[in-house]
């Protein structure tokens, strides 16, 4: 069992497999001038599977593939096949554009749970937010996932003045579909325009939803990072993720691994455990296990505490280098 100093059991790994992406969402990546990692600076699949094998024996049950866009990493299905043998629960967060090419194979390896990032239902807005003209690509992925019967959640980063007038349109998607819609607070990152000017808080979103849907039923996912609701009679659910307010850190059960092999206890960590050199110097499973145990034990109580102890000022990196 993998425990931190606050008694939380760590069961969930968010595995970022690349920092590259086929979109350039304005809240996530700058338009240009990005220093992507060279191939040899990334953990290769053997290194990842060696490490995840150790984590699985330490009690990690679930792995979510993320990035960057996980599907742009070459031969990702090979990695998923290996992970499918180690973990009972696999999931992926994706913009979906490459999903039609790979879905069948991914499902065959046990990957049937997807978070699809979709911030607007209007094509021209999609192009403005993602800086790429591919609304149809993500919508096609949504249709495909629902047809295939995959557990599907839509991630919408809510931005005041940009897409917050679409909250109710997204809620209405849950009327007839077995679908979750998750409204995510925009977190600032170190881009030139940050996200402060567009920030809409968890509380503001909740009030807007309650005004329109006064009978919303609330429940909190166990160990989850979201507060979930359901409109009575609707098939799906809606959730709000206080990614920036960080009010749900107390039940956090997750660990992150960046594409460059840095293990992070928290989305707000800047100082992690550098595993790539250790894996390349032939560290044994036992040594690795003991280093991870010690690192994870030090996980701070909340993202606020992590930020206070590890960072100076606002130096939030792009989610593509951390794994969103
Ligand atoms: N490319 C994939 C995708 O977009 O689904 C996976 C990686 S992406 C970094 C993971 C999630 O982080 C996405 O749902 C994205 O919307 C979210 N995200 C990225 N930057 C964010 C930010 N500044 N604030 C809140 N969420 C963010
Ligand atoms: Fe790419 Fe996902 Fe970031 Fe958008 S949110 S730029 S799709 S990694």
CATH class: Alpha Beta
Ligand types: S-adenosylmethionine, iron/sulfur cluster
Biggest β-sheet strands, sense, barrel: 12 strands, mixed
Shape: globular
Number of helices: 11
For the biggest β-sheet, the strand order reads: 7-8-9-6-5-4-3-2-1-10-11-12
Q: Estimate what percentage of residues fall within beta strands.
A: 15-25%
What is the CATH homology-level superfamily? Aldolase class I
Distance between the termini: 25 Å
If you average the pLDDT, what whole number results? 92
CATH topology: TIM Barrel
Tell me the number of structural domains. Answer: 1
Low-confidence stretches: none
- The percent range for helix content is 25-40%
> What is the level-2 CATH architecture name?
Alpha-Beta Barrel
Order of helices and strands: EHEHEHEHHEHEHEEEEEEHHHH
E-strand count: 12
Describe this structure in words.
The structure is a single chain. This protein has 324 residues and is an alpha/beta fold. The protein has one domain (12-322): TIM Barrel, CATH 3.20.20.70. Helix content is 31%, strand content 18%. The chain has helices at 45-57, 76-86, 99-108, 123-130, 135-147, 167-172, 202-212, 276-280, 285-297, 303-310, 319-322, and strands at 12-16, 62-66, 89-94, 113-117, 151-158, 180-185, 217-220, 227-230, 237-241, 254-257, 262-264, 273-274. A hairpin with a 4-residue loop joins strand 10 and strand 11 (262-264). It is globular and about 55 Å long. The model has no long low-confidence stretch (mean pLDDT 92).
Quick gist of this model?
This protein is α/β, with parallel strands linked by helices. It is built from 11 helices and 12 strands.
